[in-house]
Amino acid sequence: MTSTASPVAPEALACVCGEPLADDVNDRGVVTVEGLAIAFRRRTDYVMCCMCLVFYRVGDLRIGRVRPLTLMEIKFLNEIESAEERDAVAAL
Ligand SMILES: [Zn+2]
């Protein structure tokens, strides 16, 4: 550690509108700007900007890519999620 280290975390993830999306994204989950740790449940997990309501895939954020999802991609993710839920129910 040196005194020249910046106090601002370069890893902070922000929306295209400038609103912070998350404090950190790691292997286990997302740390929100409020400091809440949210564990991943599915590979389809995504976060939404509270200002402009744009969705981002957590998988993209994890690799430092900030790319808003298109409506088609959100629809596709919703279909994967409901299919996984059906499978989970069927396995009971
Ligand atoms: Zn935004």
C-alpha termini separation: 52 Å
The residue fraction in helices comes out at: 25-40%
Helix segment count?
Answer: 2
Query: What is the global morphology?
Result: globular
Number of domains: 1
What portion of residues belong to β-strands? 15-25%
- The strand order across the widest sheet is 3-4-5
Which secondary-structure class do the elements indicate? Answer: alpha+beta
β-strand number: 7
Q: What small-molecule ligands were found?
A: zinc ion
Structural description of this entry:
The protein is an alpha+beta fold and 92 residues long. The protein contains 2 helices and 7 strands. The strands form 3 sheets. The chain has a 3-stranded antiparallel sheet. It has a two-stranded antiparallel ribbon with strand order 1-2. A two-stranded antiparallel ribbon has the order 6-7. The model is unreliable at 5-10 (pLDDT under 50). It binds zinc ion. Zinc ion binds next to loops.
What is this structure's SSE topology?
Blueprint: E1 13-14, E2 20-22, E3 24-25, E4 29-31, E5 37-39, E6 46-48, E7 55-57, H1 58-62, H2 71-90
Antiparallel strand pairs: 1-2, 3-4, 4-5, 6-7
The chain binds zinc ion (ZN).
Zinc ion binds next to loops.
Keywords:
single chain; 92 residues; alpha+beta; three-stranded antiparallel β-sheet; two-stranded antiparallel sheet; 2 helices; 7 strands; globular; binds zinc ion
Describe the structure concisely for a colleague.
The chain is an alpha+beta fold.
